[in-house]
Design brief:
The complex is a heterodimer of chains A (about 160) and B (about 210). Chain A has about 160 residues and is an alpha+beta fold. Chain A folds into two domains: about 1-35; about 65-160, Aromatic compound dioxygenase (Protocatechuate 3,4-Dioxygenase, subunit A), CATH 2.60.130. In chain A, about 20% of the residues lie in helices and about 25% in strands. Chain A is built from one helix and seven strands, in the order H-E-E-E-E-E-E-E. In chain A, the strands form two sheets. A four-stranded antiparallel β-sheet of chain A has the order 3-2-5-6, with no helix packed on it. A three-stranded mixed β-sheet of chain A has the order 4-1-7, with no helix packed on it. The longest helix of chain A is centred in the first third of the chain and has 33 residues, at about 1-35. Chain A starts with a helix and ends with a strand. In chain A, about 35% of the residues are buried. By secondary structure, chain B is mainly α. Chain B has one domain (about 35-200). The chains are: A alpha+beta (about 160), B mainly alpha (about 210).
């Protein structure tokens, strides 16, 4: 009885999944045709931003990793040497504190990685802030949210539009 | 159920009701006081958070007072306390929003302008404006010559809006409140406000009856 119920459920969910496929395909295909779209600035991304955060090896004592990639809109080519600014409410300070801010550069693969103190929930969500504002490309502010406040890492990806 | 307790042991019943209310209000506050997040917050941010929890807890007290569900409070006295708690509620909301503004101005400005990235902000702002409108209506009730029936309808409708907005606001926030005590407070605040709405018959029922008063 149970197995019959389960199999019926499986068929139903499989049916639902097959309905989903054309929908997702319809959404992704035109994006590929136009090339990689630039990342839009997120709501609240620029909050408590401090221009000109220094390039640092690590923000504070570390223990948490902010990671991500920077690519060019259109062809998706990785962008090396791009300056990304990072800040958050952490175990060592508020978003507004200058010590909570730091910047890093992308490597040859367009990847960046900066160690910082553990991000803790503030204003209702555990989140970080990132900015690209060096001028060669359009300015973008991101505000990624952690899936869990216990996460030890957070990723954010930039696709930049030439200015 | 209430009939039996009513007649036989009013003192015990009164004691139990008041103790339960005291627990429902103090447990969420005490649980929040043990939140690990407090270690990484400035005093003004901590005060702002607790002002929000106090405001939330007062939302449970208000319908209980005015509905006559709290033993020992006569109708006149209950109404006076309801007024005082209302003023306290406005002050708590102001402390909540003001404290958050000092903590992080851009986040609060975003919330007030309804462009915040956090989905709970809009519910909090809605509840805040509903609290202010309710208070203003209360202050100018006599001047505006609002009829008792219209007053009741408007006041309970606003109360429902405040409680609903606050509950959604609180549930979506990952903050200092402990999950279980928060959920209990949410349920009780909704239940008490709905009970008032039903008891005072703000919507037309099949049989038109007089509103129940204690």
């Amino acid at each position: 009885m149970t197995s019959r119920l389960l199999s019926r459920r499986t068929i139903l969910s499989a049916g639902a999944a097959s309905l989903m496929i054309p929908v997702t395909a319809g959404l992704t295909v035109p994006a590929q045709a136009k090339g990689l779209a630039p990342t839009p600035t997120m709501r609240g991304g620029a909050n408590n931003y401090r221009p000109g955060a220094p390039i640092v090896d690590r923000i504070g004592g570390g223990g948490f990793w902010m990671t991500g990639t920077v690519r060019r809109a259109g062809d998706g080519a990785p962008l090396a040497g791009q300056r990304i600014q990072i800040w958050a409410h952490t175990t060592e300070g508020h978003e507004r504190d200058p010590e909570s801010h730091g910047a890093t550069l992308t490597d040859a693969n367009g990847e960046f990685r900066l160690e910082m103190p553990q991000i803790v929930p503030a204003f209702g969500q555990p989140h970080g802030h990132l900015a690209y504002d060096s001028g060669d490309f359009e300015t973008v502010f991101l505000r990624p949210i952690m899936k869990s406040a216990k996460d030890k890492t957070l990723a954010a990806h930039f696709v930049l539009q030439p200015a | 159920m209430t009939g039996i307790e009513h007649g036989k042991r009013p003192a015990i019943r009164a004691f139990l009701i008041w103790t339960a209310l005291l627990l429902v209000i103090t447990v969420p506050l005490a649980a929040a006081a043990f939140s690990p997040l407090l270690a990484w917050r400035q005093p003004v941010y901590i005060v702002a958070g607790f002002a929000g929890i106090v405001a939330f807890a007062l939302l449970l007290v208000q319908p209980l007072l005015i509905g006559g569900y709290l033993p020992g409070a006569t109708h006149v006295r209950a109404r006076r306390i309801h007024w005082a708690v209302g003023i306290l509620l406005v002050l708590a909301v102001l402390a909540h929003v003001g404290g958050l503004w000092i903590t992080s101005p851009p986040d609060v400005i975003d919330a007030l302008l309804l462009r915040s990235p956090t989905p709970f902000s809009v519910w909090g702002v809605l509840a805040m404006w509903a609290v202010f409108v309710t208070a203003l209506l209360g202050i100018f009730r006599k001047k505006l010559k609002i009829r008792p029936r219209s007053w009741r309808l408007a006041h309970i409708a606003l109360a429902l809006l405040i409680v609903l907005g606050t509950v959604i606001h609180a549930l979506l926030i990952e903050g200092t409140m402990e999950t279980m005590s928060k959920a209990v407070l949410c349920l009780l605040a909704i239940a008490a406000t709905l009970k008032i709405a039903v008891d005072f018959r703000i919507w037309p029922l099949r049989q038109a009856g007089k509103p129940k008063r204690s």
